[in-house]
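Researcher: Structure for this, please.
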Amino acid sequence: MQIAVFGGTGRVGGRFIEYALADGQTVKALARDANKLAPRAGLEVVQGDVLDAATVARVIAGADAVVSGLGGAGVDDPGEAQSQGMRNIVAGMQQHGVRRVLGVAGGGILNSVDGGLRHDQPTFPAVFKKVSSRHKEAWHAMRDSGLDWTMIATGDIVPGERTGVYRALEEYLPEGGRRISVEDVADFLLRALHDGLHIQKRVGAGY
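Model: Predicted structure, token format:
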């Protein structure tokens, strides 16, 4: 399988590339600074910006699937990399006939047990509202695309180990599952891709 990866210099994206290559897949990754991704067998790096739609489409050409580990630049000014970036990814996939895409977002986009989204609950931390709004836009770009998408949504993503042992629940965050390691998010992305899990679903993941 050839996988187009966006956000590969980030925590989750970098681990995903490592695990995908070890699994025998090939990866074509976009990076603003190609030097941040060490050369490895099976990895091709394209230098460019996810906000450049033509470059995004070029990375996607020939891929069997797309994985996005894109995140925000910060809580005060998260930027458009995740939201507009996902719109560009969807457009590039439609252009080249690629159907499978997976992404990562915060748990605010999941359903609340009280109705509506967790993002819209009065208890949702105000400091994360801007970032969560970008995540919501990225999810909507996936949702409205008609593609075979999966958005993995989590609470806190922390340094840790690849255990392969975590809980997943479609549309909701597992009760009490407010943390998951970087390594296990990357593991879950690869597992969901490999096994064709959670098609056209948001899925909450945590311990």
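Researcher: Any notable elements?
Model: The chain has a mean pLDDT of 96. The longest strand covers residues 100-106.
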